[in-house]
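Hi R.,

As promised, here are both runs. First protein below:
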Amino acid sequence: MGKCLRCGMEGPFVRVDEQGLCVICRKRAQGSAPVSAPTSASPSIRPCDLNPEDVISRYVSTYHNTYPAEYNVVDYYVAEFHCMLDSLPVVPIPRIACDAPGEEWEGVILKKFDGCSLVDCSDFVALDTETTGLGGSSEIVEVSAVRFEHFRPVAVFETLCKPYRRIPLDATAVHGITNDDVKLSPRFAEIIPALDEFTDRLPLVAHNAPFDMRMLAQEGFPTAGRQAFDTLSLARSILRDKDGNKLASYALSEACKQCAILFSGAHRSSADALAAGLLFLELAKRRFGTENLLDGLGLWKK
């Protein structure tokens, strides 16, 4: 439960910063406050200081629990994550009118690692949506997808979407997307053909996949017969703390922390989509073993 000290907004999904401000009040404060000078607590490494190919190769080829000794571990992992995200080419998104009817998301086939080979799950699209709420009448206001080939991120699809209803303040407090942000954005229906082409019928990966699949289906995206991996349920079955106990929380940020995947920008869909894809990779390592993963996909082993 979070509560903003300035506007008083509260709720289970309201995120406040160290000053106790929600996203809306923080944006307002940043717009009026002067830029402060760097301090000794500033990050010691930036995403631009890293080579994205080296970062991606290390993510794929090792358990992600080591880092260069000369850097602060938190700074390094955050810089590493955003180095990868910033390096991905963003695909162009044409706006095409599409009147596809909503589908029942139950047509999605939720997959487990059992019965899958490494080749079955090495190419996928990690996806995340941000919405106007959690109810059945909610609409998508942002969608991002990161395409992985042989477990390596290769491209990103991202766009804001203009809903037919106004975005409630409590939703903005979660993801920071305002009505002004989406004023000139396409309707979700206009980007369905582009998103469908980008995903190319590959398996979809999402954290709490049933929610994202339901949102996509009710907005008209063709989901029937699609395969999807839910990193939330996979993390619950695989991840344990150092004492072998279940984690206190399997939220995306907490599950990622357990795998040393650290990032800023949670609850914005491009960061969440990449994080879900990297978490899926880490879960695959734990399920199949890193050596088996590399040997099974020897064509890209370096």
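And here is the second one, sequence first, then its structure tokens:
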Amino acid sequence: MELSEQEIIRRESLAKLRELGIDPYPAAAFNVTRSTAQIKEEGAKPEQKLSIAGRIMSRRIMGNASFFELQDETGRIQVYIKRDDVCPEGDTTLYNTVFKKLLDIGDIIGVEGYSFITQTGQLSVHCQKFVLLSKSLRPLPIVKEVDGKIFDAFTDPELRYRMRYVDLIVNPEVRDTFLKRTKVINTMRQYFNEHGYMEVETPILQSIPGGAAARPFITHHNALDIPLYLRIANELYLKRLIVGGFEGVYEFAKDFRNEGMDRTHNPEFTVMEIYVAYKDYLWMMEFTEKMIEKVAIALHGTTEVTFGDKTFNFKAPFRRLSMTDAIKESTGFDITGKSEDELRAKCAELDIHVDKTMGEGKLIDAIFGEKCEHLLEQPTFIIDYPVAMSPLTKRHRTEAHLTERFELFVGGKELANAYSELNDPIEQRERFEEQLKLSEKGDDEAMFIDNDFLRALEYGMPTCSGMGIGIDRLTMFMTGQTSIQEVLFFPQMRPEKKSESQSE
């Protein structure tokens, strides 16, 4: 491995530390009693001993006394270090050699001392003892500001996503996005728990990838000698639990879809799905909008959320608009009763690209996607989808050609999907068989027939409503991020190009 000059110097420092009997990676724990945030909240307390740990982010060496900036999970604080305080026995090696020459920006150290106010009025920590906890062998891309201009900022998206660990160190605002993501999930979990619903786990490896129309990832189980799929949805397993007698279950799940990547799609993503017995999609709409309202308030203290130059209001209730009316509003075309040939002809007229594998449901979805979605800025429930678009959904109670389904759209993007769940096993089998015909036509996203799920339905599933919501996309809206990669710690990336030295 070819090393840079800085990397060589740091490895030489590492060797010298060991020669001095200092372990650069000690096994012993370091007792941290305060975070930088706690110190700032408490203010100066010279009489109270404390210990903090973190990464050196800047240094000002000034002879026998110096300053450095220490960063932990909660922020940064200035530390004052004086030779005579850390070298009380007269041996100045620890200060003159270790601190001044062998420590670097990026090294992680523990500091014992007390908080005080400097002569310039800055809250700081007076270091009385320090210990090296981890030697950094690579230099950080430290941001510099000269005459109001920023230099060496770590802003390249590909580098930031590929080396998120560096991104989190040098761009503190990134950490805030992920703290908010956790708050989104915790707020939702608290909301479900308050209603008495149970959090569960279902299989990621599945013999049949059911519950959605998507292309799966496939793998092979050696011991059983069978193909397995990474789940595209957890829906069918959660509904099995409703059959089994649980009346409210939810899961925060990793799902996988073998599709393209863009600013709103990652092949591995997080979804929350919830199923509640004896409820329908009308109840679920109210439940969903109240949940999202709570999330907005938890993060922002208000239902109004700014996203770029737009403001979205998540105050319940949200607008409701049928799929048929949405398409009619934007195109003047009424999809009611239209055949596949008529829909295909309309797509051609509207200059919407389709192919021969697409059935009635996908043709309607193409029209809606091209002509309607981008118009749905404020939170809007699109309701009452055609049967062909919703193979797992109960037929509408008054319009037999429709289903009791809604999707929530915000900023032109789908955020949630929900049904009154189909619980008639005979009709469900017929719907699966229609999907099989689409698969035979070449639609690689058509659903499989899941015979075990059908068997479960034959034991009886109560009236039930289910809802799935994309956690990544919800976090994007709640944190003002325009790319899904900004809300995933480690988004999927293209393989890193190897240098010539690496490939040899």
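A quick note on the second one: Confidence is low (pLDDT under 50) at residues 500-504. Let me know what you think.

Best,
J.
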